[in-house]
Design a protein that fits this description.
3 strands, 2 domains, 3 helices, elongated, membrane, transmembrane helix, three-stranded antiparallel sheet, alpha+beta, binds zinc ion
């Protein structure tokens, strides 16, 4: 087994920890980025540029955004389950290492 280094400060002072019930922070950030309201806003913006009525663009954005959230949740949880989670004692950051 190789030594795990912190990706933030490259310290070897890391401890293995159990999975957190709330999930990793980066997962929540991704969900924020692909949230239906954000996608609807993006769809409306793109629809205006493409000459499509904004409500259609918003609808497409919500559908695409909802699909992306479901797909990313599916893959992230699968990935997240197989990953090992560490906590850095040096800088206090949490990170996951996939095998
Ligand atoms: Zn660190």
């Amino acid at each position: 087994m190789s030594t795990v280094h912190c990706p933030y400060c490259h310290s070897e002072q890391v401890i293995l920890r159990e999975s957190q019930p709330n999930g990793p922070q980066y997962f929540e950030k991704i969900l924020d980025a692909f949230s239906p309201p954000a996608m609807a806003a993006l769809g409306i913006k793109l629809a205006k540029e493409a000459g499509i009525p904004p409500y259609i663009g918003g609808l497409i954005g919500v559908v695409v955004g909802g699909t992306l959230v479901m797909v990313s949740q599916h893959y992230f949880y699968r990935h997240y389950k197989s990953a090992q989670h560490y906590h850095c004692l040096q800088c206090g950051q949490d990170f996951a290492v996939a095998d």
